[in-house]
Amino acid sequence: MLVTCRSAAWRGERMRTARLRFTIMYVALFMLSGVALLGLTSFLTIARSTSPVVPAQQQRPDASAARIAELEARLEAVHRDQARQLLGGSAIALAVMGVASVLLGRSVAGRVLRPLRTITAATRRITADNLHERLATPGPGDEVKALADTIDELLERLEQAFAAQRRFVANASHELRTPLATMRASLDVAVAKPGPVPPQTVALAGRLRTELDRVDGLLDGFLTLARIQHGALADREPVSVGALVTEVVSARAADIEAKRLTVRADVRPDAWTRGNAVLLAQMTGNVIDNAITHNVPDGSVRVVAAPEAGTALLAVETGGPPLDPEQVARLGQPFQRLGLERTAGGGTGLGLSIVAAIAAAHGGTLVLRARPEGGLHVAIRLPLIPPASREDEAA
Amino acid sequence: MRVLVVEDARALAEVIAEGLRDQGMAADIALDGLTAAEKLDLSPYEVVVLDRDLPGLHGDTLCQMITERDDRPMVLMLTAAGAPGDRVTGLTLGADDYLATFPQVRCCRGCFVCPAGGTSSRH
What we know:
Chain A is built from ten helices and seven strands. By secondary structure, chain A is α+β, with helices and mostly antiparallel strands.
């Protein structure tokens, strides 16, 4: 879901290094062959040119001998010049071709590495978005295709493992709910018996009911998480984030009053997104519930629903004591809580992980930050839809 | 008032029936859809408490069958599934109300004494 800028840039650097390596290798090979060719050519040419011209006639009269010697010397000079020119020209040609080979080598290296880049990008996208997809590379059965096929097998095993885990959680939670319902019903029946009910029974029933309600809340959360993570979001429609916020805040009026919290809602009418209205409502409810539950009495809550940089932003800020940034970053995981007690402040510990799951299922992100002035900042960003589409839908 | 409790978990069915009897209603139990249909044919019931996940005849189908009858009893659906869309589905099928988890018995009693046309609003 979230690929940090840092790791993406690092991966980009590694790719550039491989291309650079290949280019350098190619150029080095070329230059080596070039120099070797040059060397061989010069050796053969110069060797031939410096081999003595056959002087067989030493019986000639002196004048001819002198003339011949002079001609031989000049021939030798010409040959040496030619050799030097050849060498010089070849060196220049080598230099020019060396530059050309850098460009050629870079292009070839890029071409060779491209299938790898494609596979990397596709795999990253698949694991981020949709584990159903496969690379399914066509082409000759070479090493690149073998790599792609191996990755496909790996994705298949991954998907099955996730699915099995989700199924188990869903089934287990479902199985647990019936005995749980029986227990709660028994308690209710016992307390509602006509005639006087012993106070110990009422007290016991009350305590048990509270804990059983908590277990039921947990199971509900597990089932919700399993369902959301299962993938396909049914019934996508345009949803107004602002409207959700307004509804949740007014529904929680009693809790807000009980803690004497000050709630500032900054709701703009044009923050719309496309998604499952019920899940988005649950997400909004969870995040605002969280702000209310884990807040100090007389505390403050600020809710923002507005478009921001191409996304629909839902942000909730709470005041309070400063928080540990590391712990805050982990809050999106199930059962992570700030502070020591497992059950401090009530709640199932699943609220924010459900928010994270719903945001992810809608192609959005959840960012949690400890505010420097104390308290928590929760920002959910969902894909923004332009006003035109929502009007079409509403019509 | 006669109530038919249709729920495949026997212990839960018996608890519900006991609670209803404590409130002065006559309660019968059916552990699956087919038995429920039989009992509905045999005697008149004013209310049916219906679990959706039933073996044999599925709760949804049974609900639709019930709503088609002339002497249509009021139907309260209860289930452990509790998916957000289930409530709408349940009500669309003709249930008069939908209880995602078993509510307190007091609420049940309150539901039943509503006039025939009214529906309760808990959960």
